[in-house]
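Thread title: Can someone regenerate the structure for this chain?

I was given the following input by a collaborator and told the matching structure tokens would be attached. They weren't. Posting the sequence so someone can regenerate them.
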Amino acid sequence: MKKLLLYFISILFIVIVFKYIFSNYKIQYKLNNYNINTIYKNGRFYYEISDGNIKYNFDYYKKRSLGKTRVTKIIEINNENIKCIYPIIKNVDTYPLCYENNVFVDYNLIDSELLEEYKKEVVDVEKSTKDFVFYNNLDDNEYIALWNYKGYIVMNGSSYKNIDIFNKEKYDNSLSYLVNNKIFMANYDEEHEYTKLKVLDIKSLDISEIDLKTSIDFDSYIVGNIDNNLYIYDNKYSKLYEINIKNEKVNIVGDNEKGFIKFENGKSIPCSKNEYKINKISFNSKYSNYKYYINNGVFKTINDNKSISQRIINQDVSIISEYNNNLYYVDKDNFYMYNPKEGSKKIFYNYELTFNTNSTIYVYNNN
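Best answer:
Regenerated them for you:
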């Protein structure tokens, strides 16, 4: 009987812990004149706050606590041009949500004394060479690698290092691809065809290689990755290779005899060779909670409610990568990181970045 009681208590404890610490939830409640909807799912909080006329939304990434997180106070920030609210949530670093001239606008872009106290001042500390300037604006968990023709400049926290990988310079780095913290590249020191992939771990800075045990023509491209498999299409020989980056096994999964496959929604389906040869198929297993649109500035929508579009950057830019709420982009010869709390901050300058952004910059976040 005693063992049965202990077993029951243990099961009950597990159920309570799962329900109040790990489980997803949705709540709706009212605070003064505002209706608030909150969704927590897998380490992400999404909020919609409405006063009946304007509906604001925002999200952030954080593991849930014992109780359900609520907005405890809303501060209104208004004048004749702007209508902003500042939601206060315990132990969460929030920011104003603004509506200006019938458009949702990141508060960092609005020139108003009412908003100055909420903005974070970013101080650029320059560390430079002749052609490269690092502004010391990365966190310790952020890693950025910039192609420098023989390897990479790898930036992290307040420092950067030059990592040489190849003996000769190569301008085109299109045969490279990032999976988590590792960049996989064709061995550019070989001629015409490559038999190995070079691998740079941008966190540890270790360099290794994968022996493909076959030859792939340089007239090829990296299609993408699904989980631990990297896919390369050899255009000259019409072959699709699957390389397992964990056990380093290489298989031909598409050719003129077998036919070809592609991935949609994580599932492989048959396709024609022309889709690889002409359309240049691209796929990966990444998912984003956002859509970004460029039209005289950059606009962001959150997938939970795509009807709300917010201007986050005032000019057209080249988007490179994203991680959670961070957006990484190039404007002229400068590389920036944007997030909704701090706005845009400069990460580095490179003298020819404008003309060479494809496959030259890789971002890894260790959160």
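The mean pLDDT is 91.
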